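User: quick one - fold this with heme C bound?
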Amino acid sequence: MRLGHSLLRLFLSVICLFSLVPIAARADADMARRVAPCTQCHGDEGRATPDGYYPRIAGKPVAYLYSQLLGFRDGRRTHPAMVGIVSGLSDAYLFEMAQHFANLNPPYGSVAASSEKPAVLALGERIALIGSGDDRLPACASCHGQSLTGLDPVMPGLTGLSRDYLNAQLGAWSNGARKAAAPDCMADIVKRMRGEEISAVAAWLASQPVAKTARPDMQGRRFALECGTHKAGPRQVAGLRSEADAHLKADASASARRGAYLATLGNCAGCHSMPGKPAFAGGQAIETPYGAIYANNITPHIETGIGRWSADDFYRALTQGISRDGHRLYPAFPWPYYARFSRSDSDDLYAFLRQLDPIEQVPRAPRLRFPYDWRGSLAFWTATNSLRKKPDVPAASADPQLIRGEWLVNGPGHCGACHTPKGLLGQDDGSRHLAGADMPVNGWYAPGLGASDDARYLHAGVDERRMAAGPMAHVIAGSLQFWTAADIDAARRYIQSLPAAVSRQRPSTGAALAASDIERSVANGEKIYRRQCADCHGERGGGEVGKAPALQWPARGDKGAVSRVTPLPNAVRAVLNGGYAPATSGNPRPYGMPPFRNELSSQAIADVLTFMAVSWKSESGAVSAADVDRYRGN
Ligand code: HEC
Ligand code: HEC
Ligand code: HEC
Ligand code: HEC
Ligand code: HEC
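Assistant: Sure. Structure tokens for the protein plus heme C:
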């Protein structure tokens, strides 16, 4: 029964996938550049680098690659570098990348002879080709193919991988860090292996030479079905829909439909869902300077969700930050912004949440430091916060578009949660409303909002010179891309009407360096820039529309004299970790920035950023290696 069901599912997903192919293939002259971030770690054409841990991805079966990419995005695999790279990308785009690498077949590198004892290698060979000889362990070759080169389209080969990588993967299955779609055969097999068998089979596999032309065999479908395979998600079938729309039932009331849009404006799913878990069932940790707070289960489950809540309870939580049983809620839940929801908005949101499937998932208690772990302190916080200056609606506030825009930005959009500097207790500093702020926990800087904002950035995540990264990429992917054009325009109108002074707040900049150090830094940085960066970002950092952001542009107001460069923390993070702009309906196949964490030392990264800041006459100063080191940790 299960086999029949998953057979049908595979068949359906294959149809869906392959119906995407022609679209992808037509537009694809530039795929090598689109996957430049991948080859930075995985080697030229995905052939793996000789020294490293990064696995070869070239020539692996397409459905296997695709399911792994979904796995990193949806929580079945957890390597942070990979998770960060693919987190904003869509199913369709990940499939296209999988296809790109599956079709490449650069030669395998040579394999160094193993220094392992012959007895160990013999044990490894036996496990791989024969198994344990009793019922306990099947031969690895029984699934991975007689020559261990894998089976198309799903089963990966086991040769051509490093010993470290093999050990890490088998270890990850045994401690639960790696999971495959159910039924997870490998979890089952690894559980039955002894420690010495794991290390022996890894040693033997890593010592096997691979024929230059090795390819997966073409008969792997049966194993794919017995061992689980990827599922076709709703987004694949129906195109991009917001998380809320995807969970709106066909027979939903008009109120619930309005509520779904409000949930999209407020990005409720962005915090209340875990990757790969049912939407709105909660569980995500919101990191704050005071500790981690978990977003609750807000599906209508009776015990673990809001199944017992009345519309009044819900309205009070949303607008006053008080839970059903009377305890106060931490402002990591941005209720001070949601206080701008009217009673009828709240009822619509409530109607939307009530029609979700109830999911049983117990909410986790916050992990906070004293005295913040005491919810009583929130009464004080609430009192202080209510004193904050109300944002000014600019003059001409009779304009309905401006009124709508102000409500969107300062209400459901909760833009100030990141873009407004915070006071001592985490409350908004009303005198610097949307003026730009360092985000204390993750070290990003959310720039001041104002003057020249372009609707395309908010809607698609790219405009003439910018491409959104990091937390802003998530806001656009989860919320802004689904706002109506009228609402995007209204929000932009309001942002443009903010007083000019507002956007002149600057992030903290780097250390003061001696003139001679700066000179040395600039000279070295220029060389690095020309070699590693200019191809994409242009000789003078002008960028290329849609493909790489401008790294400098004239500062607002004072044309020519000074230029702006990317604020320091964001620039350091971009160079260390790389990343993609969000995949949105307006920019479905975004380009990405390769990570230079391993390739460039902290000093080299400081040099290239100092070169940019100093020789392009920007307002930011020189950057030291210590500045870069601050962000290496996360
Ligand atoms: C910062 C370095 C880095 C970048 C950039 C990167 N990867 Fe990876 N990738 C890794 C590491 C490390 C692993 C192994 C993860 C593990 O141990 O689970 C991996 C694993 C994978 C796997 C699983 C391979 C297997 O055999 O199971 C695939 C597929 C993959 N990457 C594809 C990509 C694609 C496509 C991109 C670009 C969109 C990319 N990677 C970018 C570091 C990177
Ligand atoms: C019953 C079938 C089956 C058997 C037997 C089996 N495997 Fe697997 N193996 C799989 C499947 C399916 C996957 C893909 C899992 C996924 O989608 O993440 C896999 C993946 C792997 C991977 C990950 C490859 C990569 O590129 O990351 C390793 C390593 C591995 N198997 C090692 C072994 C070893 C060693 C043995 C023998 C002890 C073995 N397998 C036996 C089914 C099997
Ligand atoms: C920035 C992250 C974030 C966003 C966005 C967010 N929430 Fe929450 N929410 C939280 C956190 C964290 C908590 C738990 C607070 C606590 O435990 O004190 C929470 C708690 C709640 C509660 C109280 C549940 C209970 O059992 O007490 C409700 C109801 C709720 N959120 C609804 C919503 C709705 C509706 C939206 C969208 C309009 C939304 N949230 C958007 C983070 C968020
Ligand atoms: C979770 C935190 C967060 C929230 C919420 C958020 N932003 Fe951002 N925003 C950022 C960060 C961080 C950046 C810098 C991104 C980068 O460097 O690519 C940014 C960048 C921007 C920029 C580009 C600024 C520039 O100078 O280039 C605009 C415009 C913007 N955000 C608008 C908004 C609007 C409008 C909202 C509310 C609907 C919003 N943001 C909500 C964190 C956030
Ligand atoms: C393959 C093309 C490519 C190369 C090579 C490249 N970049 Fe990028 N870079 C990008 C893309 C695309 C983005 C946007 C990423 C995003 O939105 O997440 C970006 C983003 C950035 C940002 C952040 C800009 C912002 O406004 O948030 C900085 C800073 C940056 N790159 C600097 C560099 C430096 C320094 C180098 C050389 C060491 C370099 N880049 C090499 C494509 C590239």
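One thing worth noting: The mean pLDDT is 84.
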